[in-house]
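Researcher: Sequence recovery benchmark, item below. Answer with residues only.
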């Protein structure tokens, strides 16, 4: 079992000279544009409460800390269990209704998987929603491990989720990268001692300052060719 680590681990070498053997992906804003589903669920919940709908742009800005935290932001206060249960019902029904994979995701995962790169998802989204999205969008088969926002007592930017995923994949932090879209993902990667890669789209890149530069930025997943990142290792399936 991983030890809880609060201090950043040193990365032996970043970049092409030390290509990752494992790649861990954020979910919302990185693999899947989930904002449309979340907006539907928020609007339906607010309607149930007799409140007006919110601007979809505001909903996008709230994504990143998990579904319940997002509901709290929409309500402007801590949600009750009854409110959370209703939202969870609405979001469970909406998962996959309007969301979509970002361009090139399936082909990229297929290439990496075939080349032997070990793949995982580390997200702050609750496991029931994360798993449902991966299944409904047909990409769950590519991942050996999923660490969600309620899998552990802590979530990103705490590094424990990354450490648990890498323990399952039997890969050292110095041989791994976390690919995300936000300052939360960048800080998680730094704390966990893995390479920090950020996509140039998504929901949270605007919060990343020049002082928080990632090791790599990705504008198009076609950039992630196996021969460019190192591969050729046998995959481990985690049940």
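Model:
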């Amino acid at each position: 079992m991983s030890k809880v680590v609060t201090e950043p681990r040193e990365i032996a070498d970043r970049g092409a000279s030390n290509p990752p053997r494992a790649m861990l992906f954020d979910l919302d804003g990185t693999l899947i544009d989930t904002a449309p589903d979340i907006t539907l669920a928020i609007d339906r919940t607010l309607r149930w409460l007799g409140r007006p709908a919110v601007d979809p742009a505001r909903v996008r800005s709230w994504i990143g800390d998990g579904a319940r935290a997002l509901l709290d932001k929409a309500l402007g206060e801590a949600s009750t269990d009854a409110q959370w249960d209703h939202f969870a019902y609405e979001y469970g029904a909406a998962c996959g209704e309007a969301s979509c994979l970002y361009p090139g995701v399936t082909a990229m995962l297929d290439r990496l998987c075939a080349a032997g790169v070990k793949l995982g998802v580390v997200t702050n989204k609750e496991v029931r929603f994360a798993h449902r999205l991966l299944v409904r969008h047909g990409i769950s088969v590519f991942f050996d491990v999923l660490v969600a926002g309620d899998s552990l007592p802590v979530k990103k930017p705490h590094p424990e989720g990354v450490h648990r995923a890498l323990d399952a994949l039997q890969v050292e932090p110095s041989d791994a990268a976390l690919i995300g879209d936000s300052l939360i993902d960048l800080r998680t990667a730094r704390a966990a001692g893995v390479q920090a890669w950020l996509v140039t789209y998504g929901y949270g890149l605007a919060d990343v300052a020049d002082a928080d530069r990632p090791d790599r930025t990705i504008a198009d997943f076609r950039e992630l060719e196996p021969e460019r990142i190192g591969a050729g290792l046998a995959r481990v399936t985690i049940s």
